[in-house]
Amino acid sequence: MTPDHRVDHIDPQTLADYLERTRWFGGKGRPYAVTGVRVVGEVPGAVLDGPRVLIHLVEVTYADGPADGTAEAELYQVPLVFYTEPETRLDH
Question: Which of 22, 23, 60, 75 has the smallest number of Cβ neighbours within 10 A?
């Protein structure tokens, strides 16, 4: 996988639901949508058949933007781990 290409396999709503549950997301309580997701890098050191850690740049656009009607957007750097098989130890 090359850095800085479009990721189509991450559902924006699933990512929005995840962001809402994190401590660090600054948009809690505001109406927003994930409007862009791009892979910008991969953490080096992956082992054969092990998980990969990809760094995503996630654009969030807020519906309650400025009074002039322009949309307010923020960018978040989000590392996501991709496993080759389901990890039962991560079930919640």
Answer: 23
| 7 band by pLDDT with thresholds 50, 70 and 90 | very low
Kindly state the average pLDDT of the residues 29-38: 93
C-alpha span between 17 and 25 (Å, rounded): 11
DSSP of 52-73, one letter per residue? EEEEEEEEEEETT--TTSPPEE
What's the confidence (pLDDT) of residue 21? 93
- Measured CA to CA, the distance from residue 38 to residue 36 in angstroms comes to 7
Give the domain ranges of the chain.
Answer: 5-90
Residue-level pLDDT at 46: 78
In the chain, where does DSSP find H-type helix?
12-21
3-state secondary structure of 7: coil
Residue 45 dihedral angles phi and psi, to the nearest 5°: 100, 15
